[in-house]
Amino acid sequence: MRLTHWSDYSLRVLMYCAACAQREKPATISEIAEAHGISRSHLTKIVMTLSGLGLLETTRGRGGGLRLLRPAHETVLGAVIRQTETDFTLVECFDNDHNTCRLAGYCRLKGALQQAMDSYLAVLDGLTLADLLEPMPPGAGVRKVVHLKHIPGLPDL
């Protein structure tokens, strides 16, 4: 199971906005694009979608930017992924209309993969944006030290 770049970048935008929630000045698309090395025009499309889904509030003009519409602890990751991913068809047999697999009805792969997908989404249903912003325990998941540029309003990493 792999997230599309669209979902990955959507989560980055939401996490960035959550991390900036206490800032006086809202986050901007340009700021997020620079911080993550993502195309500004691509992020603009993502932000428009997230706004349409009721996840972000966007304000144009001087002093404008992006803010979460609800607190980070109320935004469930599983719901975000279900809204930003377009295809949960892991293998051909998941699509009854286009399934040409000759093993259909005899193979247990579909059931196993469906169970894995359900478990995957269940884990995400138990997490919120706020959970993702909690500091990592020392040494957890760290393989090498990466020094990132300081971004005003975000914690130093």
Account of the protein in words:
There is one protein chain. By secondary structure, this protein is mainly alpha-helical. It has helices at 5-19, 29-36, 40-52, 77-84, 109-125, 129-132; strands at residues 56-59, 65-68. 41% of the residues lie in helices and 5% in strands. The protein has a two-stranded antiparallel ribbon with strand order 1-2. The longest helix is centred in the last third of the chain and has 17 residues, at 109-125. The protein starts with a helix and ends in a 25-residue tail after the last helix. The model has no long low-confidence stretch (mean pLDDT 85).
Q: Proportion of β residues?
A: 5-15%
* Structural category: mainly alpha
Q: What is the general shape? A: elongated
- Number of H- or I-type helical stretches: 6
- Total number of strands: 2
Question: What is the topology, as strand order, of the major beta sheet?
Answer: 1-2
Order of helices and strands: HHHEEHHH
> Helical amount among residues, as a percent range?
40-55%
Main β-sheet description: 2 strands, antiparallel
Low-confidence stretches: none
Overall radius of gyration: 19 Å
End-to-end distance = 28 Å
Summed over residues and divided by their number, the pLDDT gives a mean of: 85
